[in-house]
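The material for today's practical consists of a large collection of protein records. There is nothing in a record beyond a sequence line and a structure line. Backbone structure tokens are a discrete shorthand for how the chain folds in space. Nothing more is needed to start thinking about how sequence determines fold. As an example, a complete record with its sequence and its structure tokens follows.
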Amino acid sequence: MEARTAEIVIERLGAKGDGIGHLNGTPIFVPATLPGERVLVRVEGNRGDGLTASVVEWQEQASDRAKPPCRHFGICGGCVAQHMKDATYVAWKRGLAVEALARAGISEEKISPLMRVPAGTRRRATFAFRKNRDGVTLGFNGRASHHLVDLQECPQLDAGLTGVLPMLRQGLGRLFSDAAVGDLSLQLTDSGLDVLIRCESPLDLFKRETLAKLAEDMALARLSWQGHEGEQPEPVAERKAPSVILGGVPVAIPAGCFLQPSKEGEAAIAAQVLAGVSGLEGAVADLYAGVGSFSLPLAALTRVHAVEGDAQAAGALKRAGEMAGLSQLSVERRDLRHRPLLSGELDKFEGAVIDPPRAGAREQVSELALTRQVKNVVMVSCNPVTLARDLALLLDEGWSLDSVVPIDQFLWTPHLELTALLHRTTKNS
């Protein structure tokens, strides 16, 4: 496409945080702009049925424009909404839930105010790295590009993550003698920093010794290596088994395992889960249980059957429950996407909690919708679109939605966590 410039007026904010205007009737998406702004833009490409563009010049700026708190904003692809004043940001973020759930016939009245996690509390992140003759670049990819932004700060992240980046750059520089690319996953645990390097470079003796020294110098809890996607990470150095406290129970977590992005967000979701099944006397099924973020708090109150497909996560939860003497907790390893619990199996429970991946859980929710004995369901989702689809399956079978709580764990991004509380109002026949 030949680059051209045009003057447009931004009309509204899109789901990805872009300002949206029109050029000759065609939608045009412009990052870091706000409704009411008049901008001269350079058209750069296509996006769906519309165009993408970048700002050449602001001719009129909106009064709700704010100074971004991060020097990398506009270059880094992580955040899209640091240029908004707080009220505008909150309305846009909550609006993502409102718009998505409206497609399932859910009114805005059912959606609670946005619950927010403080900045600087995110405890996990995955960075890309590239080593060449100029040194090591470590950070996030640029917006809509493969350009790697060498990260110096990030107001989203706990200081325990950003503070170790200089030492990790030095360590990666010593580790590789030639060009290399990969990912670096960092996770703050209650016993220290857990680091996982993903790189297809062979893990030879020199790398093992270099990594062991890096782990010692940085006082890491554990440093692991994964050569290819799908391979089991190999711990290269473990000074102290990384663990987290969930529901008062210590859980030794496997390398690369999923945790909620922040302790504060995890606590907010767990509180919704407990509220959603409070008052039930029977057992609760925790589906897609992971390492027990919700199973363990629930097990302090009632009988819980945790179901998880990942062998490492299920094993960690099972061992934690046994070590804590939780007779009310049982754990089953099962791939719920390909082998969901059937409605008859679910009839053993009075409550259910489900926290699937971004793609949702159409198959499992379809079975859940048909259960005769389950009274209350709590759905946890990181994708408003798939949550709307899965909620519709329950609503069509006579379930009633009590509330939806949007929880902002990924500040200044389009990512949004939600919890939905439902109860059965009619029995299927």
